[in-house]
Amino acid sequence: MPIGVRQIPDAVALALVLWAHWRLSGWLLESEWAARRPVARVLGLAWRWVGVVWVSYGIVFGIGQIARFLPASTLREWVRGAAILYGMCVVAAWAIHEMIHRVPGFDPRRRELLNTARASAVALPVAACGYGVFLERNEFQMREVDLPVPGLPKDLDGLRLAQITDIHYSAYLGDRELERAIAMANETRPHVALVTGDFISVRRDPLDRCLRLLPRLRAEAGVYGCLGNHEILADCEDYLEAAAAKLGITILRGGARRLRFGGATLNLAGVDYQRTYLPYLRESAGLVEKEAVNVLLSHNPDVFPVAARQGWQATISGHTHGGQVNFELLGEQLNVARFFTPYVYGLYRVGGSSIYVSRGLGTVGAPIRLGAPPEVNLIRLCAISS
């Protein structure tokens, strides 16, 4: 996909945030309080223009094709992430303010009511962002999933697969968080450990520091992985594969490994990130084995219908972060990921094939998770009748 087309969502987001910021700053500048206080008006004007520069910096320098050329800086990453969080807050504040104004009986001429509405519009998104940044982002969960496989051999019934995905090792997630996730995975005593892509976010992130921790994963049959879209963005696919191999981690790139458990065989395959504008899984159709249980690692969950047709009984994915910022309304999950894929989070089935899509560990864009806490997964294969 051409770079210009890929940046359309970024341009739309920037325009929306700048418009909401302009409106929000206008509330202050047009208020009676500011009119009576020249200093407040000066501060309001400064906030308006500093906000424009700050938000523009956060979104523009968050674009992967630009960010990849910047040197590493923890402070700069947090400044950029805070700008995106601020943008989220001002859009939410504007939306809440507009909804309050449309409540039947609301009279904007009543000063006390208007001030309360504006205070609520600001306080609610700020409180939600604070919770998502400082609490939920660090609340790693152990998610156990029974993945049904028709005709599963007895020797594979209950086989434990530990999955870590979307680490995004960066200024927002470091040694302490990854060590905690690895310890959680090891507590499940897995037969196989899986790392399904997005080890880092951009080229300047410390990939080697991430990789040096992953050999601490303990599994009877070893540690296997596949690559995600951020490995493409960071231009580190070949390097990661070679560096991981030296550490005893096998990255499956259009290949498979036959793992024996008793008298049964698990055929574990993996593919590089499947780009949305190319045919899916061209390299994996010939890897399916009729006499084995076939499990596919694919960072992109959109391959699932093709994987099911090819004969993969199970697909294990990540990529979506469960939406990262997710709200439930009238039983529906509202998040950005829904605009791009029907497979946002959880277990899905088509005929005799299943896919599990993990929320993963890390974040992209802004260091926040809301309604989509990070998770380590224990996936158990379980037999069901054909």
How widely separated are the two ends? 40 Å
| Shape field | elongated
The helix-and-strand class reads alpha/beta
Give the biggest beta sheet: 6 strands, mixed
**CATH architectural type of the largest domain:** 4-Layer Sandwich
Overall CATH class of the largest domain: Alpha Beta
Number of strands: 14
How much strand content do the residues show?
Answer: 15-25%
At CATH level 3, the topology of the largest domain is Purple Acid Phosphatase, chain A, domain 2
**Helix content bin:** 25-40%
**H/E element sequence:** HHHHHHHEEHEHEHHEEEEHEEEEEE
Oligomerization category of the chains in this entry: single chain
Which short descriptors sum up this protein?
2 domains; Purple Acid Phosphatase, chain A, domain 2; six-stranded mixed sheet; 14 strands; alpha/beta; 386 residues; 20% strand
Topology diagram in text:
Layout: H1 3-6, H2 8-29, H3 32-35, H4 38-60, H5 64-67, H6 74-101, H7 111-134, E1 141-150, E2 160-164, H8 175-187, E3 192-196, H9 207-213, E4 223-226, H10 229-233, H11 237-246, E5 249-251, E6 255-261, E7 264-270, E8 293-297, H12 304-310, E9 314-317, E10 327-329, E11 332-334, E12 346-350, E13 353-357, E14 375-384
Parallel strand pairs: 1-14, 2-3, 3-4, 4-5, 7-8, 8-9, 9-13
Antiparallel strand pairs: 2-14, 6-7, 10-11, 12-13
Helix pairs in contact: 2-4, 2-6, 4-6, 6-7
